[in-house]
Amino acid sequence: MDTSARHFLVELFGCDPEPLNDEKTLRALLRGAAEAAGARVVNEVFHPFAPHGVTGVVVIEESHLSIHTWPERGYAAVDFYTCGDVRPARAIELLSSELRAQRVELLEVARGGAPERTLSSAARSRFL
Fold first, then answer.
1. Tens of pLDDT, residue by residue, the chain (128 residues)
2. pTM here?
3. DSSP secondary structure of 79-123
């Protein structure tokens, strides 16, 4: 089985604060972003904070898409971990557009798959 995957860490700055504080809007937006990327949604969990902010996770067959928002700062952190034939750029474009981000920063990390990424048993024992 192929374990290779891609992990996208996305920072959205200068966003419209209103949707960042609306659980219902973010739920629909994340589900739509996952579907736009070609992912298959299997579950979702969202939690609004008081006085503001929302954390949400859309579980997809290919892994997950999550968001954490700080409306008071116009900021959202997005995490998209995926394997298979999914197109994360479509999800990121949709999210940044709908949240009206003025600046987007992206870090892509290759995960799994490569034997050189496997921790040695000595290194593994330090982390477990």
1. 778 889 999 999 999 999 999 999 999 999 999 999 999 999 999 999 999 999 999 999 989 999 999 999 999 999 999 988 899 999 999 999 999 999 999 999 988 875 454 444 444 344 33
2. 0.84
3. EEEE-SS--HHHHHHHHHHHTT-SEEEEEEEEES--GGGSPPHHH
Task: Supply the residues annotated as catalytic.
Answer: 63, 68, 83
Angle at 10 between CA 47 and CA 119, to 5 degrees: 95
In Å, how far from its chain's centre is CA 27?
Answer: 13
Q: Shortest CA distance to 44 belongs to which of 25, 62, 65? A: 65
